[in-house]
Amino acid sequence: MKKIIRNLLAIQLIITSIIAIAYAETGFSAFIVDHRSGKPIYEHDADARRYPASLTKVMTLYIVFEDLSKGKLSLNTKIPFSAKAAAQPPSKIGAKEGSAITLDTAIKALIVKSANDVALAVAEKVGGSEEAFARRMNATAKRLGMHSSNFVNPHGLFNPSQYTTARDMIKLGIAIHNHFPKYYPLFQTPSFDYNGVTFTSHNRVNKDFPGADGIKTGYIRKSGFNLMTSARRNNNRVFAVVLGGRTTQLRDDLMISMLNESFTTGYRGRSVREISPYITKDMTVLFTPTKTVTSDKTVLTNNKRTQQIKPNTAVATATPKPKVNTKPELVMPALVLESTSEYTPAGDYDPGNTPIRGPIVSASGLSHAVQVGAFKDYNAARDKAREAYEKVRNGNVQIFNTGEYYRALLSGLNESEAEATCTRLRQQKTDCFVIAL
């Protein structure tokens, strides 16, 4: 009987993991809420499941603050480092196995350095083990109304079963601000010292936006660049989150633009506003370079920029240069054309029958995409894919480099969704066809 129960639990765990993989994806979301009323001001895909990355540490800190408030911990409590904690990958403070720091230093390390080794050490101290702490994280999330989130670790390093939404992150940000006013100002900590090294905060929005006072940045490859911020002006406070920024610069500039918009025009009117596509459109572009081996990683472009984005203005990005591969390339089979439509492409366009050198990586792991063009110029492909997305608001804008052309895709679709999306595009006089990835 016990064996049957164990097998059933194992099956349930597998099913839960599969569901998490299916619903969490790399993509862009943003959400801004008025603190006093809880009313949304701006949003973009606020309920899409994303990977939280180091925004996870806000939940870790919520639990720490909870125990501090109850007297179960003090700022002088010693946090020891196990071998497992000390071995966590960066970002970290580099504490050695068997060493210990005070909880006060640990809190600053989580906020300023986003230290993964510290996060696990805290989890083991507070929860007894990483697994027990994760159970408490999920119980806390449920209590706070974060019904679209799941946690399996305290730091946010990639796990397919760890996910959240922009809406849930806003709930967490408001909760930690409201429930722990004594400790919330710690999110403004600019630096701290450990073992002779001074660690400095890289939260640029806290420095560059007057009124911003927290709270956390985050990044893993699967999530893109994440940021949760709260700011106050004229007795108004907003909480804002960006998930899936393509670079820190774009993410921070977008956050500043959204905050400015919120305080200047966001309080007018009664209905929630979709974030301007002129602000968000560069966040929704995924660029897949030529590959010679199969990869499950979605590659986000990382174009360095030196100019600030002004609110409601288009963002110009440099044309990526195709990678030069000195190794023999693996010639993959041609894309499978599954649409029955017949049309004659025009302009700087290739219908897509040439061999693909390297696999296309879907933005979400789903099996189909809609191709709306193939161009010699990356920017032309990007703009065509954006134009198509704005017409149907479906799929993920993705640019795939064949080595000869940049293919403009709406990916992240199953077969029926792709066919329906292409049909809608044709109705709006946009040529397209469905491809199997």
From TrEMBL:
<feature type="domain" description="Peptidase S11 D-alanyl-D-alanine carboxypeptidase A N-terminal">
    <location>
        <begin position="29"/>
        <end position="246"/>
    </location>
</feature>
<feature type="domain" description="SPOR">
    <location>
        <begin position="368"/>
        <end position="435"/>
    </location>
</feature>
<dbReference type="InterPro" id="IPR012338">
    <property type="entry name" value="Beta-lactam/transpept-like"/>
</dbReference>
<dbReference type="GO" id="GO:0016787">
    <property type="term" value="F:hydrolase activity"/>
</dbReference>
<keyword id="KW-0732">Signal</keyword>
<keyword id="KW-0573">Peptidoglycan synthesis</keyword>
<keyword id="KW-0378">Hydrolase</keyword>
<keyword id="KW-0133">Cell shape</keyword>
<dbReference type="Pfam" id="PF00768">
    <property type="entry name" value="Peptidase_S11"/>
</dbReference>
<keyword id="KW-0961">Cell wall biogenesis/degradation</keyword>
<dbReference type="InterPro" id="IPR001967">
    <property type="entry name" value="Peptidase_S11_N"/>
</dbReference>
<dbReference type="InterPro" id="IPR036680">
    <property type="entry name" value="SPOR-like_sf"/>
</dbReference>
<dbReference type="Pfam" id="PF05036">
    <property type="entry name" value="SPOR"/>
</dbReference>
<comment type="similarity">
    <text>Belongs to the peptidase S11 family.</text>
</comment>
<dbReference type="InterPro" id="IPR018044">
    <property type="entry name" value="Peptidase_S11"/>
</dbReference>
<dbReference type="InterPro" id="IPR007730">
    <property type="entry name" value="SPOR-like_dom"/>
</dbReference>
<protein>
    <submittedName>
        <fullName>Serine hydrolase</fullName>
    </submittedName>
</protein>
